[in-house]
Here is the input.
Amino acid sequence: MKAVKNGVELEGMRACHIRDGAALCEYLHWLSEEVHKPGCVIDEVDGADKAEHFRSKQDGYVSLSFDTISSSGGNGAVIHYKPEKGSCLQIDKDDVYLCDSGAQYVDGTTDVTRTVHLGTPSQFQKECFTRVLMGHIDLALAVFPPGTKGTCLDCLARRPLWDVGLNYQHGTGHGVGSFLNVHEGPCRISAGNRISKYEMGLQKGMVLSDEPGYYEAGKFGIRIESLVEVVETSIGPDNGKFLTFKSFNNDSY
Here is the structure.
């Protein structure tokens, strides 16, 4: 079954994430310098195009895995936003900037979201980012029996937000193909009220996203996404039969 990757596919996913992470770091470094130059105007489409440019220089690059969500300020609160020339916003150093992007390489597929502020964020923005990151880490550190469904783990990513009355209206994780669909079933991590009879319990070798977020309509959006591999852990009475996640991503948050 394609949801459970073989050794060659997993090694390819690890390798392509190293190259993809380097490209993403190049882009965010370039952006952090350019937006502070006097008179420099970079809109959301310019940002998306530049991110693609850095990826295209990596070995094994084939194409984007989906249209880049390059979103500044209030557009970041539109979960599946797509910037268009003529209507998109300028990337502003005084706003939160969310970039959800990925690529297809001959050895694997990437999907990563990083949220940055290129100036000075508000105290509320910092708290929201911290709580999203806490949820991202809590889910990544989960230990669970084989066959556990993602709906049982979803609340781990939401708890730090729920603690202060916040939430997000999308799933926490989706399956990812190996040089295939960036959204791939039947495994996923989603809220319990979205249980599907087709959902599959998690098994060693599956690849999913870990992507909690928080969105303030008309103001900003925050999402942190990395791809994770389901691996065995020695924690638990079955001596290696329990499962946990291992991140493919090497870039910083």
In short: The mean pLDDT is 94.
